[in-house]
Amino acid sequence: MMDDTTHRRRKPAAGATIRWALWIWAAGCGVLLPSARASEPLAVVDFSRQPDASPGPAMAAWLDAQKGRIETKFGGPAYFFLQQGSLHLVARPGPAASSILLWRLLKREDKVILRLTPNGFRVSPRSYRRVEVTMAPVRLPGKGADVTDSDRNDACFYLLVAFDGPRHLYQGQRVPDTIAYVWADGAWKTGADVGRERKYGEFMRHIALGRGPDRLGELRTLVRDVEADFRLAYPERAEKGIPDVIEVGLMIDSNTVKSEAESMLRSVRFLP
User: Stretch 138-151: mean pLDDT, rounded?
Assistant: First the structure.
């Protein structure tokens, strides 16, 4: 990271000025140049100044206005809402979740995945080594929910950080290696630091941001070392280097244990 004192005393050369101009342009487009040297946090999302939007048509209109930046990848965020500068993620059985029609089940309300980054997004962990999330668990799915158990693999909050590299074929889609930072209901059956589940374990590894009913509804800021976590979660790849982050997403689900869950998100940032 650049030394602040040196930065104040030296006038940047023309080449450096051009590089910084390109970096600013690329960041605004959602793309980071591989050669960019990070000195400031990179915001992925920040809901702190967003106006309230209630569940239903108001929230649907807000999400529609975010297309190209925030998009629904699975499920239907029918019960999501914005309140006091936070996005509330709510998983609850609804009409689509009880349907026998496949096209409606794909829009189920009790399992929702949102993409938070635009196409072409790319961040090097060498420049932005840490990810910071300000969030709060609100309601845990309960009923023994455990992301390492295929019969109970639900949680109230997932921050999905996907990495460049090989893709894994799953239900007709090619999925990159992903770390799921999870607010877990409690201890995992496996007892391991990294959670793996039978159906998704090839491409998704879980790391707990926190566990249990700790200060429900109270926002807290949590920071994780992305490079260190990738080494922990994917040791088979880490020895060849840490790949770039190419996508960030959110997930909430309560469908497996047939319950309800809720969490809040204020912001996600990458830090130098």
Answer: 96
- Domain 40-271, CATH 3.30.70 — does that match? no
Three-class SS state of 64: helix
Domain ranges of the chain: 1-37, 40-271
- Note the pTM of the prediction, 2 decimals: 0.86
- Residue 198: predicted pLDDT: 87
